């Protein structure tokens, strides 16, 4: 495992603990990032300007202490696939 792979869980864990810092509209943008939408598509979906989307993305990246839109997209995907207890939504429980 290289350093990037080893650091990944800490990056997502730290970022996801800060999602509550986002405003409602930033959260709306963040939630849609996992769908791979462009800024124009996000703007159209949320009935806001593309410039406003860019502003929200800057705030999301800053507040979650990420370094790129790509990492914000990945964080959004992880956020969608995790349960509140940190397990994958698709993980099945073992019978006792």
Short summary:
By secondary structure, the protein is mainly alpha-helical. The protein contains 5 helices and no strands. The chain has helices at about 5-15, 25-35, 40-45, 50-65, 70-80.
Annotation field: number of helices: 5
**Low-pLDDT windows of residues:** 89-96
Count the E strands. Answer: 0
CATH class: Mainly Alpha
Alpha-carbon Rg, integer: 15 Å
Distance between the termini: 33 Å
Q: Any guess at the CATH architecture?
A: Orthogonal Bundle
Described by the principal axes of the CA atoms, the overall outline is globular
**Domain module tally:** 1
CATH homologous superfamily label: Winged helix-like DNA-binding domain superfamily/Winged helix DNA-binding domain
Within the CATH hierarchy, at the fold level, what is the topology? Arc Repressor Mutant, subunit A
SSE layout and pairing:
Blueprint: H1 3-16, H2 24-33, H3 39-46, H4 50-63, H5 69-81
Helix pairs in contact: 2-4, 2-5, 3-4
Overview of this protein structure:
With 96 residues, the protein is mostly helical. It has one domain: Arc Repressor Mutant, subunit A (Orthogonal Bundle). The protein has five helices and no strands. It has helices spanning 3-16, 24-33, 39-46, 50-63, 69-81. Helix 2 crosses helix 4, helix 2 packs across helix 5 (69-81) and helix 3 crosses helix 4. The radius of gyration is 15 Å and the shape is globular. The relative contact order is 0.16. This is DNA-binding NarL/FixJ family response regulator. Residues 15-84 form the HTH luxR-type domain. InterPro entries: Sig_transdc_resp-reg_C-effctor, Tscrpt_reg_LuxR_C, WH-like_DNA-bd_sf. It comes from Saccharothrix tamanrassetensis. Keywords: DNA-binding, Transcription, Transcription regulation.
């Amino acid at each position: 495992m290289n350093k990037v792979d080893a650091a990944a869980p800490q990056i997502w864990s730290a970022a996801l603990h800060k999602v509550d810092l986002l405003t409602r509209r930033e959260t709306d943008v963040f939630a849609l990032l996992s769908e791979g939408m462009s800024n124009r598509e996000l703007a159209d979906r949320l009935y806001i300007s593309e410039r406003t989307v860019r502003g929200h993305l800057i705030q999301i990246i800053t507040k979650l202490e990420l370094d790129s839109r790509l990492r914000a997209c990945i964080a959004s995907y992880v956020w969608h696939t995790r349960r509140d207890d940190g397990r994958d939504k698709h993980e099945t429980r073992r019978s006792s």
